[in-house]
Amino acid sequence: MTRRGALLFAVMCVIWGMPYLLIRVAVRELSPATLVFVRTAASAALLLPAAVARGGLRRVLERWRPVLVFAAIEIAIPWLLLSSAERRVSSSLAALLIAAVPFVGAALAVATREERFDARRLAGLAVGAAGVAAIVGLDLGHASVVAFVEIAGVVVGYAVGPFVLNRWLSELPSLGVIAASLAVTAVVYAPIAATQWPSTVPAGRVLGAVAALAVVCTALAFVLFFDLIAEAGPVRATVITYVNPAVAAILGVAILGEHFSRGMAAGFALVLVGSTLATRATRQPLAAEP
């Protein structure tokens, strides 16, 4: 990897490790739907002009059906579920559970016969499942079961989204697909957010968290991620999936004072080992952003 690629990789590991902390702060005063609307509307406003300038947006609009499916599975539903879950669980715990995305993606690839099911992959899925079970089992008594179900929905969405992108939208400009998906999600959530808009101006930390989510963790992050793919290749770029949860856990503990047990650390280690074993040979891209 080049020096520029290594720098982009390090930056992306931090940027996409931040959303869990920022979401946790924002939902203290904003409803999940309002947060999703503001985040997608602001980031779409920043990315759409760039997508138009680069061309190809018309091709994206011509494929509006799979784009709508991708927007729902990768953005609209997971972001709402994650925002809702983080009202009930810590950002650290949410991030560690989201680390299950790679091996769920591998299981999907096996189920659809996109990848060969061998002993190594079977072992990876088993180890990863044991890691998730350890994390959930150790904290089930301290958090809402509803939150775990919501995070499970996020994990499935993040795993299925890239599958849809790879199968039906891979020939389209990535920036155009993301910009259009963010825009259509904002349109869908606009009427819901209007009924849940806060009656008073949120605190400065909440406004700052929302701004960082939209500008840094969404608009800027996608541009940098595409640059990382061009610089280091898609396989190396998706390795950030394994690093983001660790960054998120560190930020949650350091800034919000969240609890991080040895059991959570052991479960996360099992998830990483399982994901590595289950995805080593796959060519399917993995979701890397909450």
Describe the structure in brief.
With 290 residues, this protein is mainly alpha-helical. Helix content is 78%, strand content 0%.
Order of helices and strands: HHHHHHHHHHHHHH
- Please state the oligomeric state of the protein chains shown: single chain
* Structural domains: how many: 1
Question: Which residues form runs of ≥5 with pLDDT under 50?
Answer: 282-288
Name the average pLDDT. Answer: 85
For the termini, the CA-CA separation is 25 Å
Tally the helices: what do you get? 14
Question: What structural class do helix, strand and pairing data support?
Answer: mainly alpha
* Shape label: globular
- Secondary structure tally: strands: 0
Strand content: under 5%
Helix content: over 70%
User: What is the gyration radius calculated from CA atoms?
Assistant: 18 Å
Biggest pleated sheet: none
Folded structure, characterized:
This protein has 290 residues and is an all-alpha fold. It has one domain (3-279). 78% of the residues lie in helices and 0% in strands. It is built from 14 helices and no strands. It starts with a helix and ends in an 11-residue tail after the last helix.
